[in-house]
Write a structure and sequence with these properties.
4 copies of one chain form a homotetramer. Chain A has 344 residues and is of the alpha/beta class. The first copy, chain A, has 2 domains: 161 residues, Rossmann fold; 172 residues, Dihydrodipicolinate Reductase, domain 2 (2-Layer Sandwich), CATH 3.30.360.10. Chain A is built from 12 helices and 14 strands. In chain A, the strands form 3 sheets. Chain A has a 6-stranded parallel β-sheet with strand order 3-2-1-4-5-6, sandwiched between helices. In chain A, strand 1, helix 1 and strand 2 form a beta-alpha-beta unit. The longest helix of chain A is centred in the last third of the chain and has 17 residues. The mean pLDDT of chain A is 97. At the A-B interface, strand 7, strand 10, strand 11 and helix 11 of A face strand 7, strand 10, strand 11 and helix 11 of B. Chains A, B, C, D: Belongs to the aspartate-semialdehyde dehydrogenase family. Chains A, B, C, D: Keywords: NADP, Oxidoreductase. Chains A, B, C, D: GO terms for molecular function: aspartate-semialdehyde dehydrogenase activity; NAD binding; NADP binding; protein dimerization activity.
């Protein structure tokens, strides 16, 4: 029997991707959609400017949108996916959790909170049990789990694959697609024949979220990893797919061949949305590329390539689909993890 | 009286920029144009597919193109600018120098040769006197001076400005415009809605040319600087302007304010093509941007911005117009330096 | 002595271009800048997000922005340029005219009003005297003159040049740059790797404004031309420069050579912003192109090319810089016409 | 039992799409691949620079490429798909047909020959029987069928749907994607922030192929339709999907609602690659758009929208995926028609 799923912030770019991913999903069934008060009461078709490249599902089109409020959401919901703007998420996600809802959220608020698990299932599934600490501390019947920022998700799996060599330092430069800023986030005048070497707060997210994701949960509290990360973030004229240049220094010697093997052998999970191969490693020096490789593993794989011995250690490039693996798909995957681990 | 200037490889993208820059130049007069044998004997207008955004000068349009051969070039030439493909440059530049021509070359061949000065005048003008060593060793009446690769020119002036703090290590990621590959270098299918994390040999150029440029010439030989540089190069869908993310670690403590001051105070030269302000430093975090800032100082300035304390040291972004400051303008500037220093 | 000029709506995309054009203009001096109430009282530098590709002039940067209200504007103003959103223009332009101001407006409101001259000086300068009718009818001391829509300006000069052959029908398809919609008008998600075959009300503007521009003013009233025009408008991923495909049928036979001659011979004016050659005709079949040809005549020329005998008559392509010739430059040119004709 | 299919010109952009479409096709099995002599003897993986957005099928990767010569092609081939450059197609397609091969060709050579059927199955399937005339006249055991140019395929189905109203005249402006020129056909310097209002011979193809497609085959010879068509062709910075603006005049009155109904009701076929709905009609005025709508019907549907009463008749926009419906998919569909009609 399918888990009844609602979507908080269903009309935005990530909300639309969530609908696209959940609609054919065998384990989840969409039963609630929320948006701003201005949209409440409208059909989804009226409320949303549909923008993804498959038609809006017929039954979703006719669903009535609710306000984003625990009192307004229909009763038949087991799990909420949240793609709210972070300021809204900050305000309302706790009210849903307090009202007993389990929330798998893509919003950036509370990601670094001590008792909120920040999870990429293939990397740190065991952090999910921080939810027990959360429930104890907050007295919630519900629960709040977060997935990281899209640019963080792109490179952390490759770091996890290399962690056995002892990560010491990481430099990462990102070339990020415009969809990461939402539908209206980047104007065409800003980005055509251009690049913008700044995305607000993004560098800090890569630097801090990565350490939390690679950290250790001892059943009571979470220690962040001590790898030092420096990030530089750029927006480029690409629709989907974040490309990242990474340099790492490790305690143990790390050859190109060892790194490729570690990435290829890094296990995926049997969750429905996990790709068969988590990290797809290219031998061609000019791959991965956003338009060519963002849909590997239905947009849920990480692509890596360009591995070479750098002046300082190893350098390589990695890529992920920012609105699937990096946002909507990440939240769905966390929903699957919640289901498997008995939180629903 | 104007220096009579020829252009080797005049029909290519950099050759066209050379014409655009030399035509109004008060010190140089275009007297010879060469191209491949297939173009020899044609008017320039017939031989070249003109692509820069100002009309082809009338007198240049009607000039007859010569083969790229010392015997074919008209006699009335004091200085040759070379924008040949490197394989051609490798073969023919020495024959011109041996025949007595002074060559200011943008081609990548011989840049790292011990007796070939690699010069950005504002950075290492004194290296030009390596030409005396060159003439002694090679028995040339002519001379060969090189400007660095476009992506090298973009960040080396900022390193030079910070050298007083003791450069230890540099990581640099580049976001390079398509014009850097020449007119036919990047197909539209390769780059629209995409980025390519690889440019053949480019990373090595940044890593090695930067050390030569920052090195010391003692009148007899050149020592390369020992700063360690690691580069990662990307092509993005931008017409002109290379943007670079830089992280540096220095021996002395380096604050953001000290770095800004050092860059702003770094002197330009009084050569005609040198900009009034060599390094333009932005306080806005999202600048420089290629389309907005590539024409600063008529395309000859370096733009910097986004300075912040990084996890490891300082990080910032820099930008230069790759076909002006990074190629044609760099060769013209070296021509001006040759003139000022009595090599013509 | 310079005409003292104010700009209504000075912070928008066209307002910025107006500043860029007026600042070095020998006949006009910027003495007032207005914007929305939220910006009133700020310096221009604080109020505007400056986006054009030359730095903001120092003196303009420090000017104080006024509210867009006749009572708020400084007294020392002889002429107002208006680049207000049309809904705002509709409301406030008449109040300025009533208060005695002469307004040269780019806003789309009132363009088709019987007593408002719609002028491209090289095409229908004589329509400017409709202002006397306007003043009579409205009892204004001021006056209101309009320039047409950017896409209208692009093709009407070519029609005017061919009018002697008896225009019967015109089909025109436009490929319009994103800057035509203002800085925030087109999101990057809408247009990268895409085209949008619809621009609200644009087709009607081409179809009706062209007939007014080609009409006849008899000193008392204006008759519209009876040429029939059908337009289809598209937005494409280009920054500046509207390209248009035109098919025309004429009463008299019209050969390609006759059409080229008529366009080349069509006179420009001696107004300061008029280009030496109004219509630049290319013989190459693949020109004009936006990025290559939009800056002809400092952005004030019309480029035409691709003339060929069509199945039905003649077909050709034309191009103009939409924010210079098509907007800010058009308003400045009308200001120059007002000055020459004694309306200031 | 599957039809054994070879691909002439298998390494190019259309050849790659053919592989992508044929590999999962239940009725066809790829048994031969040809390319230039330089590639003969290599594995396909070595010979082709694979560029489409799904991985190269494993078994195809290891196939040996033959020269494009009847003597070099393996024996076990029932049907050849041809995506040769037209100059090569002109020379070699007849030699294959003479050698007994049935060829479904996308190459532009011979499309207008009197005895060569030019077919869009949903539009003029009955023209396929012109092959009997062809075999008689040429004495071939094989046969040659052509699909039209990509830009022709995009608008002809909409004309066919409206033919009952009596087509008199058609104006069509195209906005064509770069993939239509093949992988290397359009450089990035040509098209980023630009548009090119010329594609060699393309306008003539739309004007003449459309009349042949809409013509009548009486069992002995083919009469072309007498609708008059004028085309203007543009290349824009879009990867896939040709968008076209169409104006038509008809003998009978044609309302927007009648036109929509005629398009929606126009029948598709039961061939495997025919879409369920041939023409998808949008009511939204800003659709179809290339990136949003090119994959309708797995890239085999035609999208139409923006229907409105024009100054002269009806105007609308249409769109098709140029390398699927407009090229590789068109050839596969003709292969299916050949199979159904007993030509294999």
């Amino acid at each position: 029997m399918a888990v009844r799923a609602g979507i908080l912030g269903a009309t935005g770019a990530v909300g639309q991707r969530l609908i696209q991913l959940l609609e054919p999903h065998p384990e989840f069934e969409i039963t609630a959609l929320t948006a701003s008060d201005a949209s409440a009461g409208k059909t989804y078709k009226q409320a949303a400017k549909w923008r993804v490249d498959s038609p809006i599902p017929d039954d979703v089109a006719e669903m009535t949108v609710s306000a984003t409020d625990p009192d307004a959401v229909p009763d038949d919901v087991d799990l909420l996916f949240s793609s709210l703007p972070s300021s809204v998420g900050e305000a309302v996600e706790p009210t849903f959790c307090e009202a007993g809802y389990v929330v798998s959220s893509n919003s950036s608020n509370s990601r670094m909170a001590d008792d909120v698990p920040l999870v990429i299932p293939e990397v740190n599934a065991e952090h999910i049990d921080l939810l027990e600490v959360q429930r104890d501390e907050r007295g919630w019947d519900g629960a709040l789990v977060k997935n990281p920022n899209c640019s963080t998700i792109t490179f952390v799996p490759t770091l996890a694959a290399l962690a056995e060599f002892g990560l010491e330092s990481v430099h990462v430069a990102t070339l990020q697609a415009v969809s990461g800023a939402g539908y209206d986030g980047v104007t065409s005048m800003e980005i055509i024949d251009n690049a913008v070497p700044h995305i607000g707060s993004e560098e800090e997210k890569l630097e801090t979220e990565s350490r939390k994701l690679l950290g250790t949960f001892d059943g009571a509290s979470l220690s962040h990893d001590d790898v030092e990360v420096a990030a530089s973030c750029n927006r480029i004229p690409t629709i989907d797919g974040h490309l990242e240049n990474v340099w790492i220094e490790t305690e143990s010697e790390l050859t190109v061949e060892d790194a490729k093997a570690a990435m290829r052998d890094y296990p995926s999970l049997s969750l429905r949305s996990s790709p068969d191969q988590l990290i797809h490693v290219f031998d061609e020096p000019d791959r991965p590329q956003p338009r060519m490789d963002r849909t590997l593993g239905d947009g849920m794989a990480i692509a890596a390539g360009g591995l070479r011995e750098s002046t300082f250690g190893l350098q390589y490039n990695c890529l992920a689909h920012n609105t699937i693996r990096g946002a909507a798909g990440a939240s769905v995957l966390n929903g699957e993890l919640l289901l498997e681990n008995g939180y629903l």
